[in-house]
Design goal:
This protein has 166 residues and is of the alpha+beta class. It has a domain of 75 residues: Roll (Surface presentation of antigens (SPOA)). The protein has six helices and four strands; from the N terminus they run H-H-H-H-E-H-E-E-E-H. The termini are far apart. One of its GO terms (cellular component) is bacterial-type flagellum basal body.
Length: 166
């Protein structure tokens, strides 16, 4: 143990311990990582300095093969399981009766009991939107004093594009 009355001895002992630790951890001449890497590269290149040809022991695999499962034509067991992951995601369903454009003057003139004329015709199918995208059309029904909509037509992707253009 060191003497607390001699602080210089404490510093000298600490420095000596630190230096011996550092010298013990440092790699010697034999353990030089650069030398080991250079020796490994020289062995790989061979005697003539050309890179050694790799042995075709097994065919090359893409990195994705080990990460992703391959798609198989007859495999339908994975589809329902994959769909189960998204079944609880909420979506917003909107039924659109029609649209119209108003000026600010017309908007300010609206009062209780005012009627706004829409572009849609009476009896015309209404648009059913999921998260703002048209997916179907239907007609209004009343079920136990509540409004509902009966789907009459599912919109195909090509029809969706046509509807977006109007």
């Amino acid at each position: 143990m060191t003497d607390p009355n001699k602080p210089d001895q404490n510093l000298d002992d600490d420095w000596a311990a630190a230096m011996s630790e550092q010298q013990g951890d440092a790699p010697g001449e034999d353990e030089d990582p650069w030398a080991a890497a250079m020796a490994e590269q020289a062995a790989a290149e061979g005697a003539d300095g050309e890179p050694a040809a790799e042995e075709p022991s097994k065919p090359a695999q893409a990195a994705g093969d080990s990460v992703f499962q391959p798609l198989e034509q007859g495999s339908t067991k994975t589809v329902p399981r994959d769909l189960e992951m998204i079944m609880d995601i909420p979506v917003k369903l909107t039924v659109e009766l029609g649209r119209t454009k108003l000026t600010i003057k017309q908007l300010l003139e609206l009062a209780q009991g005012s009627v706004i004329e829409l572009e849609g015709l009476a009896g015309e199918p209404m648009d059913i939107l999921i998260n703002g995208y048209l997916i179907a059309q239907g007609e209004v029904v009343v079920v136990e004093d509540k409004y509902g909509i009966r789907i009459t037509e599912i919109i195909t992707p090509s029809e969706r594009v046509q509807k977006l253009n109007r």
